[in-house]
């Protein structure tokens, strides 16, 4: 076995144990905290040039097992692949425009997995996007409530206003905005599982008069400026580069003059000046978010501006998302038995690696999270935003 | 005369009087508030297809005189050119890389004009960039002090830190940061007139131990990460598109790991997806800021990111700049006699039109003003910024 591994592997002194198909054990450093169970001799060659993508694939396919804390698995895997093959160059993917059917299938793959599974490790409102930590000490429920409030405050929601929620998920934001800010919310999603549970929760809170939810593609949104405010959280990652102009035009068309648009989502590390990385690597693209594409902040800023919206406030919440994903991952790890009853084994392997991997990736700056607030100015170029952002922090 | 003017001109019913070289007067609408004194028959053909650029040029060259409030002159000029020729399409300029000699000459042209002239209409600290209005009711001195404080707070300046001020002007920010936040400031400028007065003011306040200022090109900045923080206010508009990557690399090289970089400046309305407008039109390019080039927010965001900096906070202060310019313009208009003793007549004509025109342009969204805060992350991808921006508003 060792003959196949590069000599430098020992030099790294990683706290990693290899257990082979024949029961042999090899420690690559002292006091191993993670064990890689190599169930198949064909993997040895791959280990000589490991990449996170390849290791992740082998784990999902069951040719590799992992023992030890999932966070350390990722950390050691990164050290391994960095030392042996260096930083992976971003590939230049061939982005194809998504049509509605492709998008519907991709959304269903991820979000229709199992509401009960998501409920295991998300907060009580099932908010499936970056939380907001005012001190870093909050628990997940507190931080998600703070995030919803931060979004509503940035949108300067006033009672009676009409809010469009593009990609409303399980309706956490829609219900919060209706309940706490007294607005009328129209939410759209492409996930039937999300819609069903979201509607149940709206009914359970008696918010049917304030919150309407429907299965709708963003390309079918009304374009008559009927909404005072538009919010899109963790949705534009699914749109794809080719359709970003259309996406931004649809938001522009839906909001009134003087209205605000908030786009909250994951952005890429690389700009168009350097090759654009696919949404978090091949692993994410193959197993987690098919058709996901992450534009850089500069790219989405250009598309938003070209649509006629003016960017007034941008905030990076990268380390908030690292913390959110750490909490999600820890909650899932604490309930693996229950999780295994809710989703197929392969899905569980994917989600374990994806949550821990993304926690690590956000912490290390492989991607970012930006809240971008834009205004559709009045005809005379003015807008009604307050002079400062102090109102967000009162 | 009227035979040369388009029939639609009368339909506009503008509150505008034309007074011709022979003394004849023509009112284009009731109760004219502005008089255009046409001193030269050759101008009549130009009036048939007026553009702000052409009218401005004729005024600077003295072939046209203006009577009436300068703000209304701009407003009527815009209505005139919009009605008769529509919105001017942005031209696709041929951006050449600036060399040091070009930049030095361009900076000298604008900033070495006359310190006493600038002192006539700027605030007491001679802060020649967008002010910050916490309520909109502040006077210029208050709003410039608030701007300096806002910048220092965004940079999270701590006593003893080393701050680099790129394009330090008359040293208002450098002295404020040293005095109020206890930092060591190194400021650079290409204007000898600015440097001389800035040094006098540093000495007058006894801040020589804390504030060092020198005549230096940004391309000659030390690249050893010796500064904790870097600030650049109203300077990057002079860099030019071709040199933006170099400019951002110079800021990156000057700041330590974990350090912050603030870029405060004017951004263009148009992205690279549509032709890039020159810095405020041909008038500005010819008479006010030779070699000035305004990148769109998306463009400067890309260049900042490609240099290795991570954008964490962006704030548009467009309407703050409209207000600032209104105040500057009003102060200059109130002291025209004194101003005429300080600068040549043509310069005074240029500055009158430029201040009033830019006030109008910022109000109408022809350009924008963005404060972009970026961090140079530590090697592990982390940074030391607080979780939220609440500390800016305490």
From TrEMBL, chains A, B:
It comes from the Bacteria. It comes from Pseudomonas lalucatii. Keywords: Lipid metabolism, Methyltransferase, S-adenosyl-L-methionine, Transferase. One of its GO terms (molecular function) is methyltransferase activity. Belongs to the CFA/CMAS family. PANTHER family: CYCLOPROPANE-FATTY-ACYL-PHOSPHOLIPID SYNTHASE. Residues 13-76 form the DUF7884 domain. The keyword Lipid metabolism applies. Gene3D superfamilies: Vaccinia Virus protein VP39. This is Class I SAM-dependent methyltransferase. One of its GO terms (biological process) is methylation. The keyword Transferase applies.
